Amino acid sequence: MPPSAQTTRLISNLRLLIPRLRLLQKKDTASSVVQRRELSQLLSEHREASARIRVENVITTDIAVEVMEMIELYCELLLARANVLDQLAFGEKGTRARLRAKELLKKQTQAHAGEKASATTTESSGSRFGFSWLGGSQKAEVKPAIAARPLEGPGDISEEDNAYMDTALDEAAVAIFYAWHRFPHELRELTMLRTMLGERYGKEFMTLAQDNKVDSVKVPDRLLKSLRVRPPGQELVESYLREIAKAYGVEWPVGEDLNTQEELGDAPPEFVDDVPHDAHEGQGGDLPQTPKKQYTSPTSRPNLSEARRASETSELNKATPPRGPAAGRSPVSVAPPAPRTDNPNPRVKVPGSEDNAAKASPGVGSQSKSNTNGIPELDELTRRFADLQRKP
Asked: Where is this region: Disordered (predicted)?
């Protein structure tokens, strides 16, 4: 079944109101950032009196953003349950809810008028001692008790179902009715939403919700405190200024950072890497010093992690010494190339070997090519074999 025309209007208005609230939140948040930057500049210039006055605008802006967030959540709830709300409001339950709100407003009005009349009677009929002879004080005590009694009549709902329409929907409606007069911005969509909810809950319910006098539904305490027109406390102002100064790197109050450093103390010497080597010598032996190798240039000095790594490596080498090449055996072995038609006698040439061979004498060279055991090496044997092939 498609939604009715009234439900469609309600949904369309909520879909316009929710993005509007989000846009206002972004706008106020950006304005708060600019004001915080200006406050940090005032604190850096030691204009504390001006900063304390202007920080109230930042606090008010943050509270307004919080109020808009809560109203946005209630609007999303109404958007999700718009069909349920209209089904209840334009049915039998909605009729009973409007009658119940009408009787509640009537009784509260009579009780308020009775309290005024009793107060006037007490003032006019008081004795010379200041006491009432007609029992006006007793009447004043009876009236709130009458107002607190459960409603009776054909239009009342049972005690098991104490909600008007729905518990969550009633709370959203009461919050919107209460916040409309105190909302930080004037929104046309919010006014239209208030009118639409007034058609569903009745004018009596709307009047009671504006003063937070609905019997079973109350405005949340968080929204009440946020919409309260009251200057911020001194402690809140101090907290805002301290956080702003901390965020922008401004020292406020003056001397607070120094006291904090004195309480915490200095860092241990093993965690300080950028201290010059000569700085430890002028400390008079306050810090423990370890013998270090003198370096010619500051850039060649290793840092703390490299020194620790080198010490760990030396300890491991002492525990398990590395295995070197066997005695009398070269660590590098090169296989001689095979003879080819263009080079029947291939030889392995090592860079620098020809120069060393030219400088050395033949006797010394032949002796150097034999090892300590008197066995010629592979190159010597290859040369001798080539000489034998050349001879006829």
From this structure: 110-130, 260-392
